[in-house]
Write a structure and sequence with these properties.
This protein is of the alpha+beta class. The protein folds into four domains: 88-125 and 339-486, no CATH class; 127-228, Roll (Chitinase A, domain 3), CATH 3.10.50; 233-333, Chitinase A, domain 3; 510-605, Chitinase A, domain 3 (Roll), CATH 3.10.50.40. Strands 3, 4, 5, 6 and 7 form a five-stranded antiparallel beta sheet that branches. The chain has a four-stranded antiparallel beta sheet with strand order 9-8-11-10, with helices on both faces. Strands 17-16-19-18 form a four-stranded antiparallel beta sheet.
Length: 657
């Protein structure tokens, strides 16, 4: 056989072997009643149970084996549930439907509203932008003319007019106007969304081609710079303030001081020591000038610009701000967080800025899909009949309008009667008088919830993750019902069984060594010492204890019930005494005490009455385990399961065929 033929033969033999070896995911690890449990199903279930694939892959074969036994039992129970036709059980169907609507609504908002928006922001926040703008404030009386004027300014800039000069001349943002419109650096989530979106779509050193409308007005935007973002920096500074402690201004004195700072640093004195000696910033002076971490837009621009341009360990030149002269030292730069680490921060940013906007966009989308409409005429009729009615009282005009539609969508008509029942049950509206604003607010609230639930009802048809979640919940309620029918409802407890179980297990029910004691308590040491002297003189302990100043036990005249000797420090102390003896005075939180041992009860078996609650719990647990075992055994006899333990050795190793 030639070399070429040998190679080809080996190649085709390999193909034959591979083609005859089942794919890893399709390896059958168990079978019962013509049902196969594949490796893929086993691995998915196991990794969910232990917290992820990586954890599961490091686990032992023995754990795989034990889980396989439980998982096959679980799968046999689900088959039994299907044979009992649980899918058509009205109570289970109603529970599943309610869960689907409630959980589905939250799922939709998290996955289709929150998640995509925070992921978008996460990527955008890797970049910081420096921009300038010219702003024209809204004025409802002149809105059209304002927009036309703003557009004319934008057009002139496009033709070559200086953006900065136009900003100084026309912008109504008094803060940025003198600086040619410069608003310094920012990143996503810090400014109005429409403004940010325009900036992220505009190249550096370019003017956005259209006016941008925000709640503040119309903006002409110029992006001057974009660069990778440093999320935060940790710096120290030394301040020579222009303002003296007496409130007067002394810029010359500040300059002399900052020059002394520079000289000290050049002479080799540590930055921290110089800050403690010279800095006029009371918040950081005693901390060697440490300002902690700060992000963009948390400091004034001049300070921030200098700080963010320093390298770690570098000390700045003199930086001048409105507050005085600064010397800044960079201590460390923060790294960009992972998405998971930044998730909660991003969610909070979304809620503070534009959550309501994107929520309303989503709801409006569903309104279109489901043909939502409101009957404004009926709303006015409700007001007409009930302008003096307090919500919770009997609704007026029910015969005329009760069955009429207040709002509707594809599969639902909301009648006035149904709407009013929701109003009465909702604490936000109950007890208030009818008016148009209140009804519209309620219509919005109720309809939004119902539209989300409507979408949730069909979500499992398009979203595999939600379908899996619903399947898991259905499996859970099926298993719960099986346990009810086959175990919990069959547990029978009577006095004969309880006594028999107690007799068989009485060695488990043991009372520890216990003590009962009495306390004399006083808030002052002089009082407790007085009581101690009286005791030594022969006074009755219980008579003095009745005067205890500890309110919790005053009604019991200072007496404590029997308790285990390790239950409290008091019990430990008196356990060392003989019955009738008492301690010397000692201090404890709130005052001073003397303790007397009244009774010492040695460890012993509990009587039936003392152990009854434990016996009942133990018997129920024992009976439940017995019935569970009997039920699983009956399934094994019925379905004849076979577990291929050798195949389990290949679990979580897809290269192992």
């Amino acid at each position: 056989m030639s070399y070429k033929i040998s190679v080809l033969f080996a190649f085709f033999l390999t193909l034959f072997i591979v083609s005859c070896t089942p794919e890893h995911s399709k390896i059958v690890v168990a079978e019962f009643n013509e049902t196969a449990v594949t490796m893929s199903e086993f691995e998915d279930a196991y990794s969910k149970n232990v917290g992820g694939w990586d954890v599961a892959a490091k686990d032992s074969f023995e754990n795989y084996k034990n889980f396989a036994d439980l998982y096959v039992n679980f799968r046999m129970k689900l088959k039994d549930a299907n044979e009992r036709n649980y899918k058509n059980d009205s109570a289970l169907t109603a529970e599943l439907l309610d869960y689907k609507k409630k959980v589905g609504s939250s799922f939709i908002l998290e996955k289709y509203l929150v998640e995509p928006n925070i992921k978008d922001w996460y990527e955008k926040r890797k970049v910081e932008i420096r921009a300038s703008h010219i702003m024209f404030r809204h004025n409802p009386a002149k809105e059209d003319s304002i927009k036309l004027f703003a557009q004319s300014i934008l057009d002139s800039i496009k033709k070559g007019s200086s953006f900065e000069e136009m900003a100084k001349k026309y912008s109504e943002d008094q803060y940025s106007k003198p600086k040619g419109g410069d608003i310094f650096y920012f990143t996503a989530g810090q400014l109005p969304y429409e403004f940010e979106e325009a900036c992220y779509k505009t190249a550096a050193d370019s003017v956005h081609p259209a006016l941008v409308n925000t709640t503040f007005g119309y903006h002409i935007i110029k992006v001057t710079e974009n660069q990778p973002r440093i999320p935060k920096v940790h710096a120290s500074h030394i301040l020579a303030s222009f303002v003296k402690p007496d409130g007067t201004t002394d810029s010359l004195g500040a300059k002399l001081k900052i020059d002394s700072v520079v000289a000290a640093l050049k002479a080799g004195e540590s930055f921290g020591n110089v800050a403690k000696k010279f800095s006029d910033d009371p918040g950081s002076k005693d901390k060697e000038g440490d300002l902690g971490f700060f992000e963009r837009r948390m400091m004034i621009p001049e300070f921030e610009e200098a700080a963010f341009n320093l390298e770690v360990g570098q000390v700045s030149d003199i930086v001048t701000t409105n507050y005085g002269y600064h010397i800044i030292k960079m201590l460390e730069k923060g790294t960009y967080p992972s998405f998971d680490d930044d998730r909660e921060n991003l969610k909070n940013l979304l809620k503070r800025s534009r959550y309501n906007q994107v929520y309303n966009e989503l709801i409006n989308e569903y309104k279109k899909i489901y043909g939502f409409s409101v009957n404004e005429t009926i709303i006015q009729q409700i007001i007409g009949y009930n302008d003096t009615t307090v919500i919770g009282e009997e609704l007026k005009g029910v015969e005329e309008i009760g069955n009429k539609t207040i709002f509707s969508y594809t599969s639902h008509i909301e009648t006035v009667n149904a709407f009013y029942e929701k109003l009465r049950r909702d604490t936000e509206f109950s007890g208030k008088k009818f008016n148009t604003e209140l009804i519209n607010k309620a219509v919005k609230k109720f309809s939004e919830t119902m539209l989300l639930e409507e979408k949730a009802l069909v979500l499992d048809k398009t979203d595999a993750q939600f379908a899996e979640l619903m399947q898991d919940y259905q499996n859970g309620i099926f298993i719960f019902k099986l346990q009810e029918e086959e175990v919990w409802n069959k547990v029978e407890i009577d006095s004969i069984k309880l006594h028999a179980f107690y007799e068989q297990n009485m060695q488990k029910y043991v009372l520890p060594e216990r003590v009962g004691f009495t306390e004399i308590f006083a808030r002052k040491d002089s009082v407790i010492n007085h009581y101690y002297n009286l005791l030594k003189a022969g006074d009755n302990f219980d008579t003095l204890a009745a005067k205890t100043e500890r309110l919790q036990i005053k009604d019991k005249k200072g007496k404590y019930d029997l308790q285990a000797i390790d239950a409290s420090e008091f019990a430990k102390m008196v356990s060392k005494l003989n019955v009738g003896d008492y301690t010397e005075p000692f201090s404890n939180p709130g005052g001073f005490s003397i303790l007397k041992l009244d009774i010492k009860d040695p460890s012993r078996l509990k009587t039936f009455e003392e152990a009854k609650a434990e016996v009942s719990g133990g018997l129920q647990e024992s009976e439940s385990k017995r019935l569970e075992t009997e039920y699983v055994d009956s399934l094994k006899k019925k379905y004849l399961p076979i577990i291929n333990y050798d195949e389990l050795r290949k679990a979580f190793n897809k290269n192992d065929n």
